[in-house]
Amino acid sequence: MSRIVYRRRRRRPRRKKWPIVVLSIVLIAGLAYAASVLLGFNPFLERQLRSQFGDAFFNDFEVSKPVEASSDPESIINNYEPLFKSLENEALTRLDTLLTGALEDYRRQEQDGTLDRFMLTSKYIQAGRILESSVDEVFYDLLDEMKTELSSYGFSTAIAADIEETYQNAKAEKKRELLDRLRQQISS
Q1: What does the alpha-carbon distance between residue 20 and residue 33 come to, in Å, rounded to a whole number?
Q2: pLDDT tens across 56-68, in order?
């Protein structure tokens, strides 16, 4: 009979893996933070903006559902029109406030000799994005309510696509206009 001989493997000393794990976690967190700053989102900056302008500035839009009951598509759309207009006016007012704040910060930092264009630009771009996100949310809630009301009476909701397109075009135009105004103000 043959005898099977098992050899014992030599045990390698175990390496401690925790330093590598900790280093990896710190590296990943650092890269995530750097990417968020470069991509325009910075949680620290958002806190600063919310303390400077207040949470209500970015979140509270007084737009309520229409009170008139309607049974024809024209009336339903006409009931929502003042709500969309009110939202637009409030958003434009807040955008002007942001533009004024950006110009004041720019001039103050320029006089103090502490101007950091990258940080200032990042701050107000993020403020604009936060505001845009909030306005989008309110707009689409209103649009969905209007579509629901139209469809509950059996009417087509195709007009909603036209309203949305008008909204998106107005946003793009306003962005261009604000950037032009900002360039003019800074260069003068």
Answers
A1: 20
A2: 999 888 877 766 6
> How many Cα atoms are found within 13 Å in the side-chain-facing hemisphere of 176?
6
Per-residue tokens: 46: 């958002």
CB atoms within 10 A of CB 126: 19
Contact predicate 127/120, CB 8 Å: no
By CB atoms closer than 10 A (0-12, 13-18, 19+), residue 45 is buried
Whether the CB-CB separation of 122 and 42 falls below 8 Å is answered with yes
Reported as a pLDDT band with limits 50, 70 and 90, residue 70 is: confident
Task: Record the tokens describing residue 5, joined without a space.
Answer: 């001989």
Tokens at residue 44, please?
A: 């620290």
Q: How far apart are CA 79 and CA 72, in angstroms?
A: 11
Residue 72, both tokens: 């024809």
Q: Could you give the CA distance from residue 180 to residue 184 in angstroms, rounded to a whole number?
A: 6
Which residue type sits at 27?
A: L
Residue 63 CB burial class (10 angstroms; 0-12, 13-18, ≥19): middle
